[in-house]
Amino acid sequence: MSAPAVLPPTRRVDGYAPIRDYAAIGDGRTVALVARDGSIDWLPFPSIDSPTVFGSLLDAGRGGSFRLAPEHASEVSRRYLPGTNILETTFTTETGAVTVTDALTVPAGGLVPLRELAREIKGIRGTVPIGWRVEPRFGYGGAPQRVGRRQGIPVVEAGADAVAVCSFEAGDPGIEVASIGGRFEIGEGQSALISLSFAHQEPLVFPTRAEVEGRTEETRAAWHRWSTCSDYQGRWKEAVDRSGLALKLLFFAPTGAVAAAPTTSLPEEIGGERNWDYRLSWVRDSAFTIDALLRVGCAEEAEAFFWWLMQASQLTHPRLQVLYRLDGGPEAPERTLDLRGYRDSRPVRIGNAAVDQLQLEIYGGVFEAASLYADAGRHIDHDVAKRLAAMADLVCEIWGLPDSGIWEVRSEPVHFTQSKMMCWVALDRAVKLAGRGHIPDDHADRWRREAAAIRTFIDVHCWSDRLGSYVRVAGMEELDASILTGALFGYDDVAQGRLSTTIDAIRRDLGRGPFLFRYLGEDGVSGREGAFLTCSFWLVEALVHAGRMGEAADLMDHLVGLANDVGLYSEEIDPEDGAFLGNFPQALTHLSLIGAAVAFEQASS
Amino acid sequence: MSVWAAMIGGLVGTLVLTSVLRAASELRQTRIDLPFLLGTVVTADRQRAKLIGYVFHFVAGLLFSLAYYAGFVGLGRAGWLLGAGFGVIHGVFAMTSLVNILLPAIHPRMGSSLSSVDSMALLESPGFLMLNYGRATPVVTLIAHVVYGAIIGGFVSLAR
User: Fold this and answer.
1) Which CATH class is domain A6-207?
2) Nearest CA-CA distance, residue A68 and chain B, Å
3) At what angle do helices B80-93 and B46-75 cross, to 10 degrees?
4) Which helix (H) or strand (E) segment is B137 a member of?
5) Contact (CB<8Å) B121/A110
6) Which domain holds residue B100?
7) Which bin fits B112, alpha (ψ -120 to 50), beta or left (φ > 0)?
8) Do the chains contact at A159 and B134, CB–CB below 8 Å?
9) Least CB-CB distance to A150: which of B26, B44, B132?
């Protein structure tokens, strides 16, 4: 394990910390983002997709936060406690050093709060004055609140939600308008604790210090137990293990769904309008999720996610929606919030209008997921098998339609090459599943015929001799990095066939050093965006499949070095200065990192 | 007058009372959760507490229906309006004495003005008129008990 980097204090711009400066903690139900300066600026409550209680990430003025840090400027180093999602931040000042350990605890021992955020402060050296302030702002900062005390404990409530601020040896907590704060000095060997006990539609629970400390310890043990399920031992073990833990943070334990990210509307362009809610589960990610989980040995989560996917899609069968809510619900209407947005990036959206789009590629993802699931020795039951067969029939009927593509563009639907490739993947896997007796084979001949027809369509309409590449859209001369998924899913012989030259064309036209842009063409939204990290990891995996191991390893080394100080990635990165862009931390980026690393190891061995 | 009708009314009334409180909670008007409050008297396990609390709540609903029945017999008449009147008394009693004073007195996990450093977690006490659980709690609780009483009164009068 490498030593954590010592970094200067966070430089906030207009109250906003760089996205790169955040670390995530979670409990399988919600996720908080902790900035390097000790401020918790994001916490939806009670679930990942609920309104926030701390939302200053999207409105530094009225979003709410929990600040805790030495009163004087300090150097900072951070790490996750080994094998956990518990964050430890060390502040070093001129007068001494302290660590702050942040955890969203798991239920254990006695009467537990519905959700609990624990922040433990320990004096390491000298004496350090600490200041802290809790500013809860329920309902994205818009809910009317009352502040008071119960048995001497400060409490803030808003409708059916409430939080109690329980502090132990952390000074005398004072109430100011709608915030609670205090200050104290901590010496070497001393410790203090501040715990936020949350209630939703029930009375508050006021825990004792021993109970909070016991739960923090149990939380550490629970994460550690989970992290041992990974059996990856390759060259990028630290990055793969951290990616697995980041992914586990995004699993919504009550249902088994995986959120694409725990945030909404972190911009793809600072000040721009490319701001989306990712606190939903995308079918597109299904194959990558199941593949990554099975590859690192976490079969339990793979099974939970497959069943969530099958249950969620039951309501819309045989059609699949692009995405579903974390509770499996099919509706996710998009609306905007009256918030300032991260560094004035508006609008702030919740829900996602992509839910109503037609995206043909998702069928390929589901069939690949089912195929991986069956290959891992898992049983596909009769009902699910029949539904998969009906889905394959549907693909035969709709593959020729224009769609919005994997990037869910908001311009007019067109014939995206990657969508057609993934329809081919769907039918190819359907035929194979039928051949092995996992799904009914009554229509297998039709699936074979249509798969061949799709391949002909792609070969005739989606190839450019001039570019030496498959193109983004049939009949157009633009490139799209999503074509790399064709290499990942075995559409063609990557070493010899057209995909081989496509890899080079994509690097040439969409690449900026190790980075790749998704595409450069029109997508129906104004502004531009950063390089898409997932595409770079796909490129690594494509190079592996092409047998170009040296190039793959060099690129992977570079990409692994781009993570922030605690090993997390956002969706995009600014090629100019390395700043993170988009929602954070991003499941797809971490999934593709795992996929690339494992593919490399498998090919090497 | 049928005691059985009163008891059936008590069961149905408790179901409706619970639903009214739950609906108010979903509408973000209150944080009161009677099954949770009752169940945590005997267990710290959240899931079991809610289950046991529901049983306690329905038993209490049945016992109160007998008290309502005694009231109807004593007055020699019954009806949904009289039941609703009993419900007002019941609701005020619940808010000012039963949940506010008696429950904290016997609840091993509920904080009170006498609570001090303790070895286990404490549950938020209801406060005067249960206002600690939200400003709308007294109104919602009163409405729920009026409906409960009206249902018992209605069942008893229909069974005559």
Assistant:
1) mainly beta
2) 24
3) 130
4) helix B137-158
5) yes
6) 3-112+121-158
7) beta
8) yes
9) B132
Tokens encoding B53: 């609390």
Residue with tokens 């402060």: A121
- Encoding tokens for residue A219? 């939380």
H-state helical runs in A407-469: 417-435, 444-461
Quick one: tokens of A571?
């969706």
Q: Which residues of B touch A208 (CB under 8 A)?
A: 118-121
In chain B, residues 37-96 whose CB comes closer than 8 Å to chain A: 37, 40, 44, 46
CATH topology of domain A237-604: Glycosyltransferase (1.50.10)
User: Could you give the 3-state DSSP secondary structure of residue A34?
Assistant: strand
Is the distance from CB of A429 to CB of A375 less than 8 angstroms? no
- pTM greater than 0.95 (yes/no): no
For A338-388, the pLDDT digits (tens) are 999 999 999 999 999 888 899 999 999 999 989 988 988 888 889 889 999
Q: What are phi and psi of A197, to 5 degrees?
A: -105, 120
Rounded percentage of chain A residues whose pLDDT exceeds 70:
100
Residue with tokens 């949904």: B80
Name which of A433, A459, A582 is nearest A518 in CA terms. Answer: A582
Topology agreement, domain A6-207 and domain A237-604: no
Closest alpha carbon to A63 in A80, A44, A81: A44
Task: Kindly tell me the burial class for residue B26, based on how many C-beta atoms sit within 10 Å of its own C-beta (0-12, 13-18, 19 or more).
Answer: exposed
Domains of chain A, by residue range, sit at: 6-207, 237-604
